[in-house]
């Protein structure tokens, strides 16, 4: 069995977050979705668990970071082309996301990012596997 990843993110309003990510084209596994959590399907092995803050807090004794003020992580996902990167960021902005930085184009790699409704930082990246610089 392939290793799976479940990224857990605290959200203020679960229904609002689900609507946001639905506008980006993501779907949810209803088997693991209820009034406290939603399992967003990114791929066959990648899932994002959107957890209302009070439920998220049951998994840790630490204070939950306010992602609008502090970066707790950067979630980076690959895309099939530069155009696909821009399409995803455009969809996110249309759904209410903000753009923290301009896109970066390194020739062999292109990236652009947005902050979602709760301030979580998302990067979408396209890389040309034949164009990456060699390590010396």
From TrEMBL:
Organism superkingdom: Bacteria
Keywords: Dioxygenase, Oxidoreductase
Pfam families in alphabetical order: Ble-like_N (PF22677)
Keyword rRNA processing: no
Glyoxalase/Bleomycin resistance-like N-terminal domain boundaries: 5-42
Gene Ontology MF terms in the entry: dioxygenase activity
Name of the protein in its database record: Extradiol dioxygenase
């Amino acid at each position: 069995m392939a290793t799976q990843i479940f990224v857990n993110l605290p959200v203020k309003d679960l229904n609002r977050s689900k609507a946001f990510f639905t506008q980006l084209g993501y779907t949810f596994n209803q088997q693991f979705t209820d009034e406290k959590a939603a399992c967003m399907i990114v791929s066959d092995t990648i899932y994002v668990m959107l957890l209302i803050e009070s439920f998220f807090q049951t998994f840790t004794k630490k204070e939950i970071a306010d992602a609008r003020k502090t970066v707790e992580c950067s979630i980076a996902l690959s895309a099939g082309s530069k155009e696909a990167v821009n399409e995803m960021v455009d969809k996110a902005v249309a759904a209410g996301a903000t753009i923290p930085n301009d896109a970066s184009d390194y020739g062999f790699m292109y990236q652009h990012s947005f902050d979602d409704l709760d301030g979580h930082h998302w990067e979408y990246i396209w890389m040309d596997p034949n164009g990456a610089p060699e390590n010396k």
